[in-house]
Specification:
The chain has about 120 residues and is an all-beta fold. The radius of gyration is 14 Å and the shape is globular.
């Protein structure tokens, strides 16, 4: 079994920054893709950013240039540095770990990010 745990959410003013962390543990040999998704009230869950074990990244259009994803493969950990936050970034942010193509993925419980003055 695999456990995924996020941390680092909170309340921040518009224009501010937050850093989210996510650690995966359990029966893991390697993790192919680790990523961040978010879900705002009344909206579908959407990709924020993802990163393969080889370092290839993918960002949602709304966060390009403001958010940066990074990984520590040896620690099965992924980070999301969020800068210049906007009220529309308010959502529950979920971490996702895909061990290998065609295999089940694992989700964290989510961490709330609220951007408000």
């Amino acid at each position: 079994q695999v456990q995924v745990v996020e941390s680092g959410g909170g309340l921040v003013q518009p224009g501010g920054s937050l850093r989210l962390s996510c650690a995966a543990s359990g029966s893991i040999f390697t993790i192919y893709v680790m990523g961040w998704y978010r879900q705002a009230p009344g909206k579908q869950r959407e990709l924020v950013a993802s990163m393969t074990s080889g370092g290839r990244t993918n960002y949602g259009d709304s966060v390009k240039g403001r958010f940066t994803i990074s990984r520590e493969n040896a620690k099965n950990t992924v980070y999301l540095q969020m800068n210049n936050l906007k009220p529309e970034d308010t959502a529950v942010y979920y971490c996702n770990a895909l061990l290998a193509r065609g295999r089940p993925d694992f989700w964290g419980q989510g961490t709330q990010v609220t951007v408000s003055s």
